[in-house]
Amino acid sequence: MNERLQKIREKDPTFDKRLVNKFDNKMPDLLEIMLDGELYNNHIGEKKTALLAKEFITNDKGENIGFRWDFESVMDIAKNYTDLNNSEFYPEDLWVWANVKYGDMGHLINEPSLIVRYAIAELEDEDYPFEEPSQRAYCWLKKHLENR
Predict the structure, then answer these.
(1) Cα(100)–Cα(63) distance, integer angstroms
(2) Is the pLDDT score of 1 beyond 80?
(3) Buried b (16+ CB within 10 A) or exposed e, 115-136
(4) Do residues 119 and 97 make contact, with C-beta atoms less than 8 angstroms apart?
(5) C-alpha distances out from residue 11 to 6, 7, 16, 84, Å
């Protein structure tokens, strides 16, 4: 594939730009998360991108519940438990992940500070065996957008 791309690029220097524009027209949400991946090293760095998670956050019964808490509410709780300016994750990562964790655990625990603290702990969990733990929210959202 790389050879084919190289040949096309040699013939048409505008190919990449046109390809991205086509991608934007056909799959704008997937492009949005991929742009955050490039700009923020596989993190959700924009609220616009974080809002894409709304349609994928479900409860224990598989029902879509969207966002339980707004961005400011999660940040108000989080500032008591972590230094958001010196964390490996972005605030938007935490906002999405706290709401995902509410979807997973809201039927067991309904205390916002406990769920936000748990989300922080998962985003900082150094023995997480897959991608970087701080990238969980990004990878979760990207997977959902790819499989839409």
Answers:
(1) 12
(2) no
(3) bbbbbbebbeeeeeeeebbbbb
(4) yes
(5) 9, 6, 12, 47
Q: What DSSP string runs through 82-139?
A: S-GGGSSS-HHHHHHHHHHHHHHHTTT---HHHHHHHHHHHHT-TT-SSS-GGGHHHH
CA distance between the termini of the chain: 25
The answer for residues whose C-beta is within 8 angstroms of residue 16's C-beta and 6 or more apart is: 9
pTM for the full model? 0.92
**pLDDT for 6-27, tens place per residue?**
999 999 999 999 999 999 999 9
Tokens of 81: 């438990």
Length of the chain in terms of residues written:
148
Question: Counting runs of H as helices and runs of E as strands, what totals does the chain give?
Answer: 8, 0
Q: Determine whether 11 is exposed, middle or buried from the number of CB atoms within 10 Å of its CB (0-12, 13-18, 19+).
A: exposed
Q: Select from 34, 147, 133, 55 the least CA-distant residue to 93.
A: 133
